[in-house]
Amino acid sequence: MKNFAWNRSINRFSGLSAHVALAGALVCSGFSVYGAQRPPATADHSKFEALQGPFENAQEVTEACLGCHTEAGEQIRATTHWTWTYEHPETGQTLGKSKVINSFCGMAITNEPRCTSCHVGYGWEDMRQPPPTADNAVDCLVCHDTTGDYWKFPTLAGHPTYTPREWPKGSGNMVQPPDLEMIAQNVGASGRANCGNCHFYGGGADGVKHGDLDSSLVDPPRSLDVHMSPDGLDFDCADCHTSWGHEVAGSRYQVNAADTLGIDVPGHTDLSRASCQSCHGDSPHPQQKLNDHVDTLACQTCHVPEFARGGVPTKVWWDWSTAGRLDEDGQPITEYDDHGHPSYLSEKGDFRHGENVVPTYAWFDGTVKYTLVDEKLDVAHPPVEINRIEGSPEDPGSRIWPFKVMQGKQPYDTERKTLLATHVFGADDSSLWSNFSWPKALKAGSEMSGMPFSGSYDFIETTMHWPITHMVPPAEMALDCASCHARNSRLAGLPGIYMPGHSGNIWLDRVGWLLVAMTLIGVVLHGLARILLKGREKS
Amino acid sequence: MSRVMIYKRFERFWHWFQALLIFTLLFTGFEIHGTYSVIGFGEAARLHTLAAWALIVLWLFAIFWHITTGEWRQYIPTRNGLFAVMRYYLIGTFTGESHPYRKTTRAKHNPLQRLAYLFFKLMITPVIWLSGLLYLFYNDWPVTLSGALELETVALVHTGAAFAMLIFIIAHVYMATMGPKLASLIKPMVTGYEDLEEHR
């Protein structure tokens, strides 16, 4: 535990030096508060001889890093960030990016140099093999660059570009090779932009995948994220996603859906802060009635009222079945919706995007089960659940959580009744994005991955659940009671809860109001009769 | 005829404060129930809880008062004259008969009132309180209770009792206008004094 704390401190200290160097004059003014929050560094990486360069490529920087941080490479290679596999302790499934299929681009395999551009290493070009084993294949810079100039080029299996290179293709925009010496001398703790390099751009572009993670979180206003905003607490991702020997806390495969440990006390608890409760405890509200909700609701359910709130849309519908349509000249088509978001691409099919999306709510115990590529589908009852979240009202470990539910249509094998590996990327004669032919792409996907394919395919509707936990606004922007305690409730239809204002017994109400009405009518008639008869009496 | 103090100062305070609290509770309660949306669920729930606690405190004082003054005897039910009173409200009031009951300071409620108020005190109110407190402290139920009772049951009982309360109020308010003049019966509840034919 001591080691852990020490490592973290070092990360933080070194991070500061870089931030300070870059922030320049700002440090003396507005950012001085920031400086006060992070302790000063004990090491200035620009003074290290090993980091003076010159570096031919990024692996040489890694070698320099490992010269001092002797265990870091080994540590990284033990993490999910490296292996892209995850043995699920509850379901027994082998998950991870190398195994699962999602409802965005399907599987990573057969699309390696593109998908593995987000691997925390260099040169994983064939996912049938494990990641490269060389010590210098670990990418330190993607997580520890503080200059913002280091960028894993999207098609180079994890490498930055070493020659000027155009991106996006056909845009005329040239990406220059990074200044590796400068970057190496300014390494530090991982900031929001480091994690965001990959996690904000999952699914192929900014904000596409998660809905609660996109580039708006690099410098979010307080109203978007009270924790991460420089006007708020200026948290880095790692402030909550603590790490232990480079193993980062917080998993989407096995979520800590109900953290009952409460406030994380070093030396006493699990040293993981990837839950609201690890800082806020389990009775954070001054009002007891609000605290009474914590055994039913995840914090996020009220405190993340909407996602994709930062001006970056997230994809909510992706229909792959329409991909491949070309214009009269045989050229790929791009169409946009009213908001200027792409609604059709020949490469990818039809999309719908959403901003300020109201989550879908469901009971969740943290366990996520996947429909893996070899699993038989119930094709008679679509949609296919690409992943299934487990949990129920009876289970004390379950809470009602907010989710982004991604929907769309994906190819499946009509004979084998399984999902299919999709070969979408590659400058070859079979990839979907170059050839616009599903039969070719699916055949190639099967041949290259070794996963069987009968040759006949169709598209089936799918759904995928993404737990929502980021983009927490200040408390005053949390949901009000009536968002749920109302006829038109956000939680309408969820089993196992009686919500005043929403629930009730229609017959009790009918009988009750009938009796009230009868009483009213009775007294009105009685009163009228009194008035009338009294009047007659007098006359 | 003599002018006598029929409703003591505490009794009047109790009655009107209770009336205010019950109207507050009904208004906020049916908002919480989802019947309408005026002040918002959160505010309604806050006020409802506050008024409920105030009413409970008021009742503790009232119970103490009833016991120490012996006024609880006013609510002992009797069949003696009950049907005459019922007949008056159904027929006599229209034909110009006078009220068959002669109230005294020691028996200021007619037999029908005694029954109605006793029902209010021993049935509606305890049910609404018990269910309300169970509702309020739902999260703190001991395991034995949470295993045997559903929140929904408690909520439905509470709502049912609220309807009974509303019906009681409607009838009570109306019958309060049934004196010789519209305000004849209400005035003593304000001033405390009523002109009675005392026959001791």
From TrEMBL, chain A:
**Gene3D superfamilies this protein is in?**
Flavocytochrome C3, Chain A
Q: What GO molecular function terms would the record report?
A: oxidoreductase activity
> Which parts of the chain span the membrane according to its record?
511-533
Keyword entries, A-Z: Membrane, Signal, Transmembrane, Transmembrane helix
Q: Where is the signal peptide?
A: 1-23
Q: Which NCBIfam families match?
A: octaheme_Shew
What is the designated name of this protein?
A: Cytochrome C
From TrEMBL, chain B:
**What is the topology of this protein in the membrane according to its UniProt annotation?**
Multi-pass membrane protein
Q: Does the keyword Kinase apply?
A: no
Top-level taxon of origin: Bacteria
Q: Which UniProt keywords apply?
A: Cell membrane, Electron transport, Heme, Iron, Membrane, Metal-binding, Transmembrane, Transmembrane helix, Transport
Q: Which residues cross the membrane?
A: 47-67, 115-137, 157-177
User: InterPro entries given for it?
Assistant: Cyt_b561_bac/Ni-Hgenase (IPR011577), Di-haem_cyt_TM (IPR016174), Hydrogenase_cytochrome (IPR051542), Ni-dep_Hydgase_cyt-B (IPR000516)
Name of the protein this chain belongs to: Cytochrome B
- Which species is this record about? Marinobacter guineae
